[in-house]
Design brief:
Radius of gyration: 35 Å
Number of helices: 4
Distance between the termini: 71 Å
Structural class: mainly alpha
Number of strands: 0
Strand content: under 5%
Order of helices and strands: HHHH
Helix content: 55-70%
Shape: elongated
């Protein structure tokens, strides 16, 4: 089934129905039909064109590690909460906590190594500033 715009359908009907001689000649009708088809094709293409692929912001390795650090610390807090709620046994809590702490230590070591290589320390936006007495500023 071919879809035509209303204007194209009217033009096709007018071409088949005899009209008086004062109307447009065959060349004008052909031109109007051609323009209608082109406009209809353009509108359909514009409506159904594929969306451009969205590219996310490219992260540096350091930004990725800061993100993983925050996620690991959040997982440790959740693990501690579930242990205090009685959902985990002592053995399960200890083994999971040890593995998460090891993962956090590896992440922190890699962050420190990358910051040392770059020569400057980038502040983690989620990290609170701690004074000499261990209090947040």
């Amino acid at each position: 089934m071919i879809l035509l715009s209303p204007m194209a359908a009217i033009l096709l009907l007018q071409m088949q129905v005899p009209t008086d001689t004062s109307g447009p000649d065959a060349t004008a009708k052909s031109f109007l039909l051609f323009v209608t088809v082109v406009v209809t094709a353009g509108v359909l293409f514009w409506i159904f064109k594929p969306a451009p692929a969205e590219r996310g912001v490219e992260k540096t390795r350091l930004a990725y590690l800061y993100e993983r650090k925050e996620q690991t610390f959040e997982n440790l807090r959740d693990l501690n909460f579930e242990y205090k709620a009685g959902k985990l046994s002592d053995a399960d809590f200890t083994s999971m906590r040890d593995s998460m702490e090891q993962e956090a230590a590896n992440i922190l070591a890699e962050i420190e190594e990358l910051e040392h290589e770059s020569g400057n320390r980038q502040e983690d936006p989620g990290e609170p500033v701690v004074g000499s007495l261990g209090q947040r500023r």
